């Protein structure tokens, strides 16, 4: 595990049956606040942005999305994206992180969000693209700066290997900026040896509801 100053433990991951008041929330009904996105081949954000209906015959499972921003009002864009999500159970604290790969660019703010959902990985990927489009993301340079990046990390025990979608996320265990907030919410999902393989500097900032615009 990383030093405690890099991995402060917030509210433990809420079980599905835990009272709503005990879950980490920053709004009254929603939290106010996979690289499927980079490999999708979607080059403009003018797609329809209507919310995907929450339907499905499967039992709900725990799913985790990774959100990051390094352009504009980083914290504000994360808050808006999380507020637009349904089925949110918990949101990690915010971490400022150095970019991993890509051209020189500014530092990111990152969070991980847990959902309790019956949606398929494919429908969750569509939701990721919807949130990115609403944030005005433009894909011009691979791994380049972006107003919002949303990745499908884990969806229950689902395993997907398709051209534009791999679940679990193919670089999940290489990225400390994902593992630190994920371990905050669900430490049992992060193997002890994962920290030896993960790279990137991570600095704890605070809760998403308390973080103001950071230059």
Describe the structure.
Strand 6 and strand 7 form a beta hairpin. It is globular, with a radius of gyration of 16 Å. The chain has 4 helices and 8 strands. The model is unreliable at 3-49 (pLDDT under 50). The chain is an alpha+beta fold. It has one domain: 7,8-Dihydro-6-hydroxymethylpterin-pyrophosphokinase HPPK (Alpha-Beta Plaits, 2-Layer Sandwich).
Keywords for this entry:
single chain; 215 residues; alpha+beta; Alpha-Beta Plaits; six-stranded antiparallel beta sheet; two-stranded antiparallel ribbon; 4 helices; 8 strands; 21% strand; globular; disordered N terminus
Strands, helices and their partners?
Elements: E1 61-69, H1 74-83, E2 88-91, E3 94-97, E4 108-117, H2 121-134, E5 149-155, E6 160-162, E7 165-167, H3 176-185, H4 194-197, E8 202-206
Number of strands: 8
For CATH, the homologous superfamily is named as 7,8-Dihydro-6-hydroxymethylpterin-pyrophosphokinase HPPK
Find the structural class using helix and strand composition: alpha+beta
With helices defined by DSSP (H or I, 4 residues minimum), what is the helix count?
4
The gyration radius over C-alpha positions equals 16 Å
What's the domain count? 1
Q: What separation lies between the terminal Cα atoms?
A: 29 Å
CATH architecture term: 2-Layer Sandwich
Looking at the structure, what is the overall shape? globular
- CATH T-level fold name: Alpha-Beta Plaits
- Average pLDDT level: 76
- Low confidence ranges: 3-49
């Amino acid at each position: 595990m990383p030093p405690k100053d890099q991995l402060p433990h917030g509210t433990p991951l809420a079980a599905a049956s835990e009272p709503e008041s005990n879950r980490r929330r920053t709004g009254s009904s929603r939290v106010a606040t996979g690289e499927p996105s980079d490999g999708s081949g979607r080059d403009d954000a003018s797609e329809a942005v209507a919310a995907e209906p929450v339907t499905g015959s499967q039992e709900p499972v725990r799913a985790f999305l990774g959100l990051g921003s390094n352009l504009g009002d980083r914290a504000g864009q994360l808050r808006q994206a999380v507020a637009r999500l349904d089925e949110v159970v918990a949101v990690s604290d915010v971490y400022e992180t150095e970019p991993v790969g890509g051209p020189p660019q500014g530092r990111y703010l990152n969070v991980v969000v847990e959902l309790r959902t019956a949606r398929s990985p494919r429908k969750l990927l569509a939701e990721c693209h919807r949130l990115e489009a609403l944030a005005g993301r433009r894909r011009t340079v691979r791994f380049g700066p972006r107003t919002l990046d949303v990745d499908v990390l884990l969806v229950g025990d689902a395993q997907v290997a398709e051209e534009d979608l791999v679940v679990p996320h193919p670089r999940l265990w290489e990225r400390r900026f994902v593992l630190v907030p994920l371990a905050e919410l669900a430490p049992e999902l992060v193997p002890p040896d994962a920290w030896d393989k993960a790279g990137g500097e991570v600095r704890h900032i605070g809760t998403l509801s308390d973080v103001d615009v950071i230059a």
